[in-house]
Design brief:
Layout lengths: L11 E5 L4 H12 L3 E6 L13 E5 L5 H15 L4 E4 L17 H29 L2 E6 L13 H21 L4 E8 L13 H8 L10 H12 L10 E4 L8
Parallel strand pairs: 1-2, 1-4, 2-3, 4-5, 5-6, 6-7
Helix pairs in contact: 1-6, 2-3, 3-4
């Protein structure tokens, strides 16, 4: 598959959830396009992100506001600027996250802290740097699951990810006069570490049968959508919810 070629030379992105899946792929593509990345994740640095002058990796909890602020400030000192923010981190806790009518509300609070409040922390830390240089762009990852019901509910995940879209649109409206854009991506079924249940090729193929395009998406395809919304070619796009799902919403 031929991927779109971007130019991020001289630009700096903060990417959360960079320890695997879509966050890792976004980080790799920005680095490959000449940009610099401050990558943040609770997981250890992946081997796919080697030590380099253009990649700062911070291992820590994104629900910790002090850690996030320190990481973003450190990136600004190291690279001299912050142009982009990609909020990709999230948790999908099968078995623990269930119907709001019966689930442990302590789990509800944890999911919201990781999936939604972390986005508040990163935006509060990164936006001042974008303001100083007169512009920037953000992309935030939600899910198509929050746009429909589910026979096997994961209510904390769906509700927190719905909040991602709401905050993205609010930021877009607030910051548009300052040249700072904010957009959200709503992925469908995508082969990432969150989907540990698909642990064989047969299970991956079976999941793809639910999708009109006949397969699940790849982290690279979602990363391309994110890089487009960050790059200058999308300079007149803000406040949108971009569904990238192989057509699965057409079935509901």
């Amino acid at each position: 598959m031929t991927m779109i070629r971007f130019d991020f030379c001289g630009r700096v992105a903060v990417v959360t959830g960079a320890g695997g899946g879509m966050g890792l792929e976004i980080s790799k593509q920005i680095l490959d396009a000449g940009g610099s990345v401050a990558a943040i994740d609770l997981k250890p640095r992946p081997t796919e992100l080697p030590e380099s002058e253009r990649c700062l990796y911070v291992q820590g909890d994104l629900s910790d506001e002090a850690l996030v602020t320190q990481a973003v400030n450190g990136a600004a000192r190291k690279f001299g600027r912050i142009d982009y923010l990609a909020n990709v981190a999230g948790v999908l806790w099968f078995g623990r996250d269930a119907s709001l009518l019966s689930m442990d509300l302590g789990v509800w609070d944890q999911v919201f802290a990781i999936n939604l409040k972390s986005m508040v922390h990163t935006a509060r830390a990164a936006v001042p740097y974008m303001r100083k240089q007169g512009g920037g762009a953000m992309v935030h990852f939600s899910t198509v699951q929050c746009l429909r019901g589910d026979s096997t509910p994961q209510d904390a995940y769906a509700a927190s990810k719905a909040g991602v879209g709401a905050i993205s649109r609010s930021l877009a409206m607030q910051l548009a006069p300052e040249g700072i854009r904010s957009n959200a991506i709503f992925p469908g079924l995508t082969l990432t570490p969150l989907q540990r249940r698909w642990d064989t090729p047969e299970k991956v193929a079976a999941a793809g049968e639910y999708v009109p395009m006949g397969r699940v998406g790849t982290p690279g395809e979602l990363a391309c959508a994110a890089l487009f919304l960050l790059c200058d070619d999308s300079s007149y796009i803000t406040g949108i919810d971009l569904v990238v799902d192989g057509g699965i919403l057409l079935k509901y």
